[in-house]
Amino acid sequence: MADFPNLSRRGFLNRSAAVGGLLVVPGLLSACSKTAAGSADGAGALEKLRKQGFVRVAYANEAPYGYLEGKQLKGEAPTLHREIFKALGVDELKPTLSEWDGLIPGLQAGKYDVVSAGMAITPERCANALFSEPEFISPTALMVKKSNPKKVTDLASAKAAGITVGVMSGAVEGKYAEGAGIAGDKVKTLQKPQDGADAVKGGRIDAFLLTGISLRWLAKTNPETEVTEPFVPELDGTKQYSPGGAVFRKGNEDLRDAFNRELKKIVSDRSRYVSLLQEYGFSATELPPATLKTADLCKG
């Protein structure tokens, strides 16, 4: 199972302007795109997968999004994708481990068919690959000591209480705190999620600001803490949903569209969605709004 430092890399840097390997290997991505465009994918991709009986999926070993436990591929993305591909007549996921920065280049090079890693949907990534509709959103939450002694529920209440809030170094949550009007001397920077949990437990900060998904996972190994109900922060009046989805090669639009049809059945059924993903800390709070569309997210 992945450790928490990997969670910070996956959960935050992919939402910043520096979108992993996409900005540092443009030549590779361009070359791979040409290879994919010239391959025999397109409308025949799903039929090919049905005939071979499996789909090759890439994961980055980052819990709770996609990771190997023993010999079993687990997490949000593989669980959803297994359900969807079974409905499409493909019974098996064959996993390939990849470094985070290599996920899209490997996809474009034909090493696998789908990225199953809970990857955030950004315009930069959309330029090099096809995304499904959102599988989840990542509302923000606060980790606090048990019983929530300061009684905070969101950034507005944190500001009103005058508490000290911890954020990850380089993470978007620092901007959320600033946007909410929390004074700079009340915001402490931490290097990894476990540092945030330790700072809460040790009283060095009053609350740790992170996605609810990651905090609930972190709380499993830090029982002295609890996590508030998630909320959707705003920056300049825009809600920050941070959605993620499956990723396909360009040229595989038909496969992506078939996937989306089955995905819609799951995200339209609250109880089914929660029953599939609650093991990984996902709840109805992470259900993407029906109005949130990948085409809009890709435009930025």
UniProtKB/TrEMBL annotation:
A Pfam family annotated for this UniProt entry: SBP_bac_3
Xref: SMART domains: PBPb
Keyword entries, A-Z: Signal
Superkingdom, taxonomy of origin: Bacteria
Solute-binding protein family 3/N-terminal domain mapped to chain residues: 54-284
PROSITE patterns per record: TAT (PS51318)
Name used for this protein in its record: Ectoine/hydroxyectoine ABC transporter substrate-binding protein EhuB
